[in-house]
Amino acid sequence: MGKYIVRRLLQMIPVIIGTTFLIFYMVFAMPGDPTAGKCGERPCSAAYIQKYRAEHNLDDPLPIQYGKYVAKLAQGDLGTNQYGVKVKDDLQKRYLVTGKLALMAIAVEVVVGILAGILAGIRKGKFVDNLVLVSTLFVISIPVFVIGALAQYFIGVRTGLFPVTVSSKATFYELTMPALVLGSLSIAYVARLTRTNLVENLRADYVRTAIAKGLSRRRAVGLHALRNSMIPVITFVGFDFGALLGGAIVTERIFNIQGVGGYIFRGIQMRDGVAVVGAVTALVIIYLFVNLLVDILYGVLDPRISHE
Amino acid sequence: MSTTTSAAPQTRSGDGKITYTPVDGRLLDVEDLHVEFHTEDGVAKAINGVSFHLDQGESLAILGESGSGKSVTAQAIMGILDMPPAKIPEGAIKYCGLDLLTMPDDQRRWVRGAEIAMIFQDALSSLNPVFPVGWQIAEMFRQHRGMNKSDSLAQAVRLMERVSIPAAKDRVKAYPHQFSGGMRQRIMIAMAIALDPAVLIADEPTTALDVTVQAQIMALLQELQQERQMGLILITHDLGVVADVADRIAVMYAGRLVETANVYDLYAKPAHPYTRGLLESIPRLDQKGQTLAAIGGLPPNLLRIPPGCAFNPRCRMAQDICRTDRPELREVAPGRKSACHFAEEVLDA
Amino acid sequence: MSESAVLVEGAEAQAAGGDVGDARSLGADAWRSLRKSPFFWVSAVLILIFLLMAIWPSLFTSTDPTKAVLKEARSRPSDAAWFGRDIQGYDIYARVIYGARASILVGVLTTVFTVLLGGAIGTLAAYAGGWVDSLVSRITDIFFAIPLLLGAILFMAALSGTMTGYFGVIFKVVMALTLLGWPSLARLMRSSVLQVLPNDYVQAARALGASPWRIIRSHIIPNAMGPMIVVSTINLGAYIAAEATLSFLGIGLTPPVISWGVSINDAIVGLRTTPHMLLFPSLFLSITVLAFIMLGDAIRDAFDPKSR
Prior knowledge:
The complex is a heterotrimer of chains A (308), B (349) and C (308).
Chain A: H1 2-28, H2 46-55, H3 62-74, H4 87-122, H5 127-141, H6 144-159, H7 172-202, H8 205-212, H9 217-254, H10 260-269, H11 273-301
Chain B: H1 4-7, E1 11-12, E2 18-19, E3 26-39, E4 42-55, E5 59-63, H2 70-78, E6 86-95, E7 98-99, H3 105-111, E8 116-119, H4 123-126, H5 133-145, H6 149-162, H7 168-171, H8 181-193, E9 199-203, H9 211-228, E10 231-236, H10 239-245, E11 248-253, E12 256-262, H11 263-268, H12 273-280, H13 320-324, E13 330-333, E14 336-338, H14 343-348
Parallel strand pairs in B: 5-10, 5-11, 8-9, 9-10
Antiparallel strand pairs in B: 1-2, 3-4, 3-6, 6-7, 11-12, 12-14, 13-14
Helix pairs in contact in B: 5-6, 5-8, 6-8, 8-9
Chain C: H1 3-15, H2 26-35, H3 38-55, H4 92-128, H5 130-144, H6 148-158, H7 166-196, H8 200-207, H9 212-224, H10 226-248, H11 260-268, H12 275-303
Helix pairs in contact in C: 2-12, 3-4, 3-12, 4-5, 4-7, 4-10, 4-12, 5-7, 6-7, 7-9, 7-10, 8-9, 10-11, 10-12, 11-12
Protein name (chain A): ABC transporter permease
Domain ABC transmembrane type-1 (chain A): 95-298
Pfam families (chain A): BPD_transp_1 (PF00528), BPD_transp_1_N (PF19300)
């Protein structure tokens, strides 16, 4: 197992380098003068422009720029953004908010999605099953930003159950509705995946054996079949984490959340390359580590998968 | 509950569970069992009135092609048929005089595994892939006997040793896929005999195994059966497997018994053309050079079983009566029955 | 075999409802069960209608979608304007009809490109094996590590200011989604090809000296592409939703281009007072996405009866 983790970490190095280069390339290929708009209404002074360009190695060819960036990154230096604030400090605050949002979305996704999937799976072909199948299809087919806007209006404005926007404190209560919206698509997928796997496993020979052993139906289904059905579901939740972080851009915009998604989006609009690259790089690295974690967990959950 | 209750001496032990005691050594009485499967294409009549019995220490082989209803019979006895689509419109399955089919669910559950246990054909898919084998054996003791984790695991090791799994203590935490086919089937057997069941049903226990391993598993089953005086029901399509182990043989065709006899009589002189066909299709060393006689055609579609004798379209001896009148299973010689209009002729041939 | 046995077999075959045996291929079998599926027919008819709408919008409406009737702006649905009018006084029905083209173009083109790119790369990796496989798999990982929406936003930002015409923007969106969408199909194709490779018919073709290209074309691809077709049909819906999301964020299609995403973005602000402006474009978008998901599900069920 230890060997496997080391090998995976080594494999991750070229992937991180490639991915960050790709991001770096896309961000700094953005058209426009990066120093435009940095000095208020007036154009910047020649001296400032020169200083800025030197500081960000803008006169070097892109691969060299990238090399210098990675060298700094390796020391934990993500540079400073347009306002002279360290990107690292910004990101720490922002990632706390988005992390909270994403974890809440995953919690909702796992609890609601799996429960709905189990209900549908054990009552296959019955009313509950059809209800789950139809409602998840609805959720999947409606774009997240429409769901977000509808939730904001009907739950936030009309009933006043939850706040319409999220303050900079980003409390648990404020994030409840955004987390539901962010996780909505994944809830639907988790429910369907759980159902499909459970239905398939309920027909498995080992469930028949469990019944033949004199176990209760509850134990045969709830332990023997479910334990096997959870393996692909947990894998999905892990890989879905990346989509969740990407989706945060939309959700954070709708609910005005001060998270990473908003930060990246604002950075793109303001042509603040340093901020965008830092935020996206951090996001991708987190995502890659989550994937590694899921792969390791997969081996633990399914003893047939060998990591040797 | 029916009058049979009083005929069999059942006692309730302190925890409310029933202790089952066979009357005159009789463990199992299957009476006029019918099983149907309700499918989109119609009603498939898988079992159409099967009756047999099983005594303590006795081994009964149920023989038949796939689709003959032999596995369905076993599953009906175990109570592991999926209902629906399966339905049991008629019949009784009495264990120690008590009808399992009318028994409350929770009572029947304690019969499964503890009183009547079963071994399946494919041990790899029948064992749960994500739990260690020891854990799966120990689950029997934890669920039925309320035993704690360490005691039940010790019992699992003891059973694994009994079925001759080498280094049982070390392998108790291994997973099913880490064993060979033969070893996996031994684990299935250990799990089935864990609670000393009175009846053991083995559904094609050796079909998925190599020939040499087959012999070892059959020898183990026979040994355990004699050691524990279990009633053994052996479901198979393989006449070769049956000869050494079974006392009696029941031959099934299209959901009915077509012949029952003790093993020596049946091998010496079959009383049904179908049984004769089966015997003729075994290669024999003493008849080298002769062409093997296969039974032509296929078993009938259970959605439309032909009228008269179900075997008539494949039978070399079929006459007009076979296509109109269904032959009843009747005694054709002492201790043996056949469902053929011409059983005596077959027997004398 | 005796004559009676033949009779029995014949009766059986009839009972089974048709021809039995090797003569019936997997594809024919799947088509037979597909024909019986109501979901298939509903989705196929819907998709056909949307395709017609995209190719030939004037078939569905004679109203000019760019004709603004300002004094009737935001009017509710009426006989004159079936779906009402939007903030500019445009006829919403006409705009919804004309908006289909952008979504269908993005969905279909992205699907075609991801299938070609992902399929080719996945097949190459699996067939070549060895270092080619390792290299290609790492490259796939690099692109896979960037979440679809996030990467598409960066890509669009990087190319902002270029290709601003209708087809230019659509082409950019297609490129962005293709660039980030191919890795999942490449992984899928690689694993299905790996499953097909050890089969006897591939080994036999090799032993007979067939060229690699011939083996791939006539033995591997036909047998390995099933899962990819199913997934990419479902993905088509997801790409349409992604295009709308980019438009919602203001970096996909922008006015004056007519598209569902643009219409939805315009309407969200007025959700409170003029919900009909949001309803109709969202409805069309969702039904399109739904149709492709249903089609994908139906095809999968037809090929894999177990999953029902």
